[in-house]
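Give me structure tokens for this 290-residue protein.
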Amino acid sequence: MKKSTTGLLIGSALVVGLSGCASSASQSSGQSGASSDRSWYQHPFVCGLAGSVIGGGIGYASSGSSDEDSGAAIGATAGASIGALLCADNTPEPEEPQCPSYDGEIPAGAAVDAEGCPLDSDNDGVPDYRDQCPGTPAGVEVDAEGCPLDSDNDGVPDYRDQCPNTPAGEEVNSLGCPDSVVLEDVNFEFDSAQLTSEARNVLNDVAERLVNNPDVRVRIEGHTDSVGSADYNKELSQDRAESVTAYLAERGVESDRMMAEGFGEEQPVATNDTDAGRAENRRVELDEWN
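Here you go.
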């Protein structure tokens, strides 16, 4: 068999082998996405070496007797380059997610910040594109739609509700209460209108809800037991109602939204014949002022 024929046959066999190697390498890189997972024979170095042998064989076979060495060298160089390119890992680098910190798909057209994350203008944890209640005050707990929680489902959200545990189905006013509400533990020093420290703590929460409910006006009512004269008790209850009003104003509730009224011993809710009954009668109530 002639040299040229032998060389071409060997070269053809090697070309077929290299093509299979390159094809396998391409499939492997497409499936795994990482060159480190490829077989040893699929790496560019090995493919380049095989290409060099193929190119050298073809160059040798296609050269005349006078330039066999140069033909083999040129063929080997070209074959090495082609083989390495065929087995190169051309798998594109995986794209970074648009917003790694956001767990969910961001719809097309949604407003995003500089990092590609969906905007949350009121910082309630619900992005604007699905926030049904934009503009929720800072710190207010919200549901999955971004709306303030309403635990008793009375239509007044918790952060405004002075009576957060109203029974289901009961009609309430703008304060979230069925009627006037007794401000539990809002007490005073003996025979005075000075609030106790515990009373101030209770009123802090009352004031916060009133500040968050700016369209509501309220009446603060003072009541006493029957110990002492009726005139004295009327005056004391008025002073106590005004003391509560003044403290709420200090906490941010506008004065023109409040009215203080003292009823003295005129509206008892329990007997004045026992200590427990008299304690119930000494109270401050909050009601809607229309």
